[in-house]
Amino acid sequence: MLSNLVDRRALLGRLMAGAALVAGPTLTARAWAAAPAGVKLSDGTLTIEFDAAMQSRVSFGDKPVTPMAAGEALFLTDHHALDRFLLLDHRETSVSGPHGPGRRHQLRATAGGAVEQLLDVTFLDHYPGLALYELRYRNTGAAPLAIAGWRAATHDLLSHPAGAWSFAGASYPDRRDWVQKVAPGFEQRNFMGMNGSDYGGGTPVAVVWRRDVGLAVGHIETVPRLVSLPVAAQPDGTRIGLSGDEPTLLASGATLTLPTAFLMAHGGDHFRPLDAYRRIMAERGLAAPAIPDSSYGPIWCAWGYERNFTPEQVYGTLPKAKDMGFEWAVLDDGWQTSEGDWKLDRKKFPRGDADMKAFADRIKADGMRPRLWFAPLAIDPGTDILRDHADMLILDRDGAAQNVSWWSAFTMCPAYPPTIEFFRAQVRRIIGDWGFEGLKLDGQHLNGVAPCYNPAHNHARPEESFERLQDFWKAIYDEAIAINPQAVIELCPCGDSFAFHNIPAMNNTPASDPTSSWQVRSKGKTFKALMGPSAPFSGDHVELSDGRDDFASTYGIGAIPSTKFTWPKDVPNPAEPLPPGGFVLTAQKEVLWRKWIDLYRANMLSKGRYLGGLYDIGFDKPEAHAIERDGVLHYAFYADTWDGPLTLRGLGAGRYTLIDSFTGSPLGTATATNNSIQAKFQRFLLVRAMPASGGKA
To answer: How many other C-beta atoms lie within 10 A of the C-beta of residue 523?
Structure first.
């Protein structure tokens, strides 16, 4: 008891010294001594302990998984950090709101009487293991306080012999993996703004996990925020948190309110926290729209013919694509004179609108659905619209335009009403006049934009361009759906980590230029969490996968097959060198392509229920995925080579008959208690588990 009192007095002394950096020791010793020794908050799954200095420690159940440290802090412009606050009091109340019932803990603390910290931690009955953080700082001193930044919900997940994995929702020009192993020295800032001239935005969640436990942090604001979610390897673990670095001058008596955040402790990989985030955001009003049945149709894209395609090349391929089971025909980049003017190329469509309408009608006549590539917000130099409407551009502080590197273009401001109306008119032309039944909205610049300082826009704040990008996409979506309620609106932010706030404005999404089959699968698992277990996600052109033929990675995660094959021959003078064998549909390819499309159409796993919590994409070997469809369980295993046991998780009562979905070979039987089989395969193995008493094959 005596040693605890001595330790406590020493701690309070250090707090007094730290607080003096701001305003001196304004509280009396009696006030300090009256502070609580700390509090322990828990919902039975997640436990957060705060000591008298507002340092915190996280436990998963009753097992501590982080050290005691300062998870919250203010950083001052004089390079001092306020990360020790004296806990003054704690109050607990019951709450009920859009997320259902729960318990709110209100903590009040002070730094020397100069800054008051108010932290509300809310546990929700419907979300065990998750706590909402509402954090505010009030300047209780006499002078303004110059703040350089802040951090919240920051913790070091303790190290584990098997290491750790991470998911980050930020976008980078190198189009890196969203799911990565945390190696020594690993560090990623995960800024939600622009990390390149045309790469930015994302999903404001970061996750780090060990084999036995994970931590997730994010914010649940209904508009995107210019914050970071850094993940960094530490000597004894992996740090994760939420931070901001926007300078603020906080007047005396004023309050700084941080974005509402969440902290979640969980088992498994990033799927469970992203699924919880999706459900919470839906309760706050942001959710994927109703999905038309046509969104699940297999896709053939004319991009194999590149920008210099001819209508005759497309017409010649349609019967083959239709015969093989593809439902969508996508006309890609090259129909227009430029990004910006969006005028028809008269060499391809000499009669203008009449020819483009006839093109869409021809696709329909051949039994397919027409979708058109379109890249809103990009505006090329030398275009008529740039000459006549330069006022639409995003401009930075110095008056420079934001670049779109892929097309050497500039970016238009999505929060400027004339920009919105211009693109609504383009949608009316494409969907209404020409008769296309879908849009492929493409380009890495679609995911996020820079703050806009264009004086013509009269923005209340430069950040409006970034925050209202979601409204721009919703205007495009609403315009299309008003014309054709079954229209498919595909958003393809090439290589970006998809911006969650744009989800209400799309009903189809691709793997978005994957660099590997791993990206196809890891992006697919992520989207099934963010959009729902039956989300319409396509593997993008199979020619972008390993071996340029890996339909297995698309099929096994419940994705929609897509290809850009040419037929009967490749383009004679491609703009870029063709891969070995080109894109032409050879007789050998046709046999394989048909087999996969037939298998997809027979089982339609894209409409099934992706069971993302059954397997850990980082630690389970071989990599495994599972989908339930009409009572049948479909498993997919991936490895370069494998010879050993496989565990079939999620089986219900009774006996299941096992079949290799790809070859049709029998694989024996299994039950929930006897769910391991021996298997040997290369690249993939697909297992269909059918209840012995029946069920759809």
So the answer is: 25
Please, how many CA atoms are within 13 Å of residue 324, restricted to the half-sphere of its CB?
27
- State yes or no: pLDDT of 245 exceeds 50: yes
Digit-coded pLDDT (tens) for 276-325: 999 999 999 999 999 999 999 999 999 999 999 999 999 999 999 999 99
pLDDT computed for residue 684 by the predictor? 98
Instruction: Work out the burial of residue 438: count CB atoms within 10 Å of its CB; fewer than 13 is exposed, 13-18 middle, 19 or more buried.
Output: buried
Q: How far apart are CA 484 and CA 108, in angstroms?
A: 53
Tokens of 145: 């306080």
CB atoms within 10 A of CB 384: 12
Contact 295, 507 (CB under 8 A): yes
The token pair at 95 is 């709450």
CA torsion 352-356-362-364 (nearest 10°) is: -150
| DSSP symbol at 428 | I
3-state helix, strand, coil in the chain (%, to 5): 25, 35, 40
| DSSP 8-state secondary structure symbol assigned to residue 513 | S
> Distance (Å, rounded) from C-alpha 453 to C-alpha 135?
29
Coil, helix or strand at residue 504: helix
Q: At what angle do helices 469-483 and 417-427 cross, to 10 degrees?
A: 30
The first and second tokens of residue 370, run together, are 């027409």
d(CA 337, CA 347): 10
Question: At 245, which amino acid appears?
Answer: D
Contact (Cβ atoms closer than 8 angstroms) between residue 109 and residue 224: no
Q: Is 77 helix (H, G, I), strand (E, B) or coil?
A: coil
In the chain, count H helices and then E strands.
Answer: 12, 38
Between CA 140 and CA 269 the distance in angstroms is 42
* Strand positions, DSSP E, 83-236: 86-97, 100-111, 115-124, 130-139, 145-158, 164-170, 179-182, 187-188, 202-209, 214-219, 231-234
Residue 576 has a pLDDT of 87
Residues 44-90 pLDDT 10s:
999 999 999 999 999 999 999 999 999 999 999 988 999 999 999 99
Structural contact between residues 659 and 688, judged by C-beta atoms closer than 8 angstroms: yes
Which residue, among 209, 141, 224, 257, has the nearest Cα to 613 in the 3D structure? 209
Distance from C-alpha of 469 to C-alpha of 472, rounded to nearest angstrom: 5
The model's pTM:
0.94
Q: Which amino acid is at 651?
A: L
* Closest C-alpha among 118, 117, 112, 119 to residue 142: 112
If one counts every other C-beta atom within 10 angstroms of the C-beta of residue 580, the result is: 6
Q: Cβ distance 296 to 643 under 8 Å?
A: no
Give the span between the Cα atoms of 298 and 651, in whole angstroms. 29
Provide the residue type at 165 as one letter.
W
The amino acid sitting at 636 is A
Can you give the pLDDT at residue 36? Answer: 85
Q: Are the CB atoms for 56 and 50 separated by under 8 Å? A: yes
d(CA 615, CA 517): 18
Rounded to whole angstroms, the Cα distance separating 151 from 158 reads 19
* Cα distance between residue 288 and residue 5, in whole Å: 55
Query: DSSP state, 531?
Result: T
Q: What is the pLDDT of residues 429-465, one digit of tens each?
A: 999 999 999 999 999 999 999 999 999 999 999 999 9
Burial class (CB in 10 A: 0-12, 13-18, 19+), 345: middle
Rounded Cα distance between 395 and 453, Å, is 5
Neighbouring CB atoms inside 10 A of 221's CB total 18
What does the mean pLDDT of the chain come to?
94
Say how many C-beta atoms besides its own lie within 10 A of residue 555's C-beta: 26
Tell me how far apart the alpha carbons of residues 411 and 400 are, in angstroms, rounded to a whole number: 11
Tell me which DSSP letter residue 64 carries: E
